[in-house]
Amino acid sequence: MQDDARRLIAQHAQTAKLMGVDFLPLGNVPAALAQAASASNPTEPTEPTESAQPGGPRAPHAPPSFESADQPGVSPISADDLQQTYAHLGDPQARLDALRGKYEADAPHQHFNTQFANIVFGEGNPQADLMFVGEAPGEQEDLTGRPFVGRAGQLLEKMIQAMGLSRETVYITNVLKTRPPGNATPTSRESALCKPYLMEQIRIIEPKVIVTLGLPATQLLLKVSSPMRSMRGHWHALPTEGNAEGMPRVEIMPTYHPAYLLRSYTEENRRKVWSDLTQVIDKLGEASGASRVR
Q1: Which pTM value belongs to this model?
Q2: What does the DSSP 8-state code read for residue 147?
Q3: Domain spans in the chain, listed from the N-terminal domain onward
């Protein structure tokens, strides 16, 4: 896996150079970046919100926003209620489809201010070892109903390819399944109402590793308020909460959101992200080796 990743890294670097947008610093990438996780700058700029992406005005055909934001009497749905929706199904994709149907029926977004054209539930391999979690869809995601397809998504795809993987072999989703108005940062209540559906996605897919993209998704899944500079580059265990039966043990690697890299596209930041991703490559390799031993 490491040899394949190095080969793809070199190919990606050359292709991206010709395109004028490179993810990785050019040169002896694998050896240099594997040892280049420099200490975070304490004056590091604030990372933009998950859904912040370059783009034009909101699509005119998007339905009007709901006005019932932050209703005090609404609580997040329980894990038991969600699991009853798909527990009788054996196929992981069928389970995800049933969960999506439950989300669409429940429409937790009706309880907060949102404006969207399409629900963006997630896509990819329903049995993926690697899962990427962002915060919320942006404009292009809202128009297509697919996660991470705008400029930030194109950069994420380059990152995935540099790891020796493809978009089809991983699973990509967000905490919120609908676009916040103007790509605003979701409130803690909005995230709380949508989090149970994300947790069931994790339960169904059973990934070995989750890469959280950006601070909001990282803080939500890890239930912390720490800054990104203190969390990225280190492994964290997914906290088990509520009904933990059947919840897989998942290692989480926080890293910067691709939208942040587009805005602060320095070699230092790219080295930091690649250092995080090389740890993910190694972790997946270890997990694969352990499976073969068993």
Answers
A1: 0.78
A2: S
A3: 80-266
Q: Which two tokens stand for residue 17?
A: 């150079």
Q: What is the mean pLDDT of the chain?
A: 80
Two structure tokens written together for 120: 């963006």
Q: How many CB atoms lie within 10 A of CB 261?
A: 21
**204 pLDDT exceeds 90?**
yes
Residue 275 · residue 211 · CB < 8 Å: no
End-to-end CA distance of the chain: 19
pLDDT digits (tens, 9 = 90+) for 235-288: 999 987 655 567 889 999 999 999 999 999 999 999 999 999 999 999 999 987
169 CB neighbour count, 10 Å cutoff: 15
CATH number of 80-266: 3.40.470.10
Reading the block at residue 184, the tokens are: 């605003």
For residue 119, which of 96, 101, 134 has the smallest C-alpha distance?
101
Sheet hosting strand 209-213, strand order edge to edge:
123-124, 171-174, 130-134, 209-213, 251-255, 236-237
Helix (H, G, I), strand (E, B) or coil at 122: coil
Cα torsion 69, 109, 129, 170 to 10°: value is -110
